[in-house]
Amino acid sequence: MHYDPVKNVFASIIKKFPFIRIAFYKLLDIFFLRSWYVRRELIKLRKLFADKTIEIYDAGTGFGQYSYFMSKKLIPANIFSVDVKEDWIKDAEIFYSQIKVQNVKFKVEDLLQINHDNKFDLILCVDVMEHIAEDVKVFQNFYKALRPNGYLLINSPSIFGGSDVHSEEDESFIGEHARVGYSKEELERKLLPLGFKTYKSQYTYGFWGDKSWRLSIKYPMMLLNISKLFFIILPIYYLIAFPLSFLMMVLDFNSNNKIGSGINFIVQK
Fold this sequence. Notes:
Blueprint: H1 4-14, H2 18-31, H3 33-47, E1 54-59, H4 65-73, E2 77-83, H5 86-98, E3 104-108, E4 120-126, H6 135-145, E5 146-157, H7 184-191, E6 197-204, H8 207-226, H9 234-253, E7 262-268
Parallel strand pairs: 1-2, 1-4, 2-3, 4-5
Antiparallel strand pairs: 5-7, 6-7
Helix pairs in contact: 3-4, 8-9
């Protein structure tokens, strides 16, 4: 299953009107449990800097929804948002100009080739590293880009069912993934030798979160990959399925998951 064709459909819709894009951001925040976890940790990390204006690097901004959240909730802050997809970056630049958000800047960048030095207080990398085979090179670039005592927040599928892989015979549910996910141990093995130290590690999408993901994300995406005509029945599907899915997300969000199909991992330089 491939996410990118479906995501490109959404990208073509939300770029037409700013209010549609803002509504889309709100829906992503509600429907994706990973956004719940990421936003909670971002707010906690912001408090560590008191009233200082912080420099943030949104590494793999996608639709730009986390940059939008940070521009409103992590102030004072300057946000530098990058992605390898030039068309998405151009759309985001137009949108942010239209809504007159001035503390977010965009640029097309390949995380394997960036050369920022001692520039950022916080790097956010959500659902990106599972797409990059040469992950250690990116981690090295992140370390160089961070200021001393700066933080890196990585959100990714985990090895415990991430990408819907539960055994060696399973293939990743997401065709664009270079790996099924990470464990805490693997991330520490790759990050700590570079000079990072673990700040916080948390598995997400535990028992309830995994069930919610299947109900509200996996099954609809499978239908949309069959035919874009399923966009027509999505509102009816979610009217029935989402109340149950939302309840399961609340349960997961308030649980201490021993394992889960996602991981939130924070390190400090």
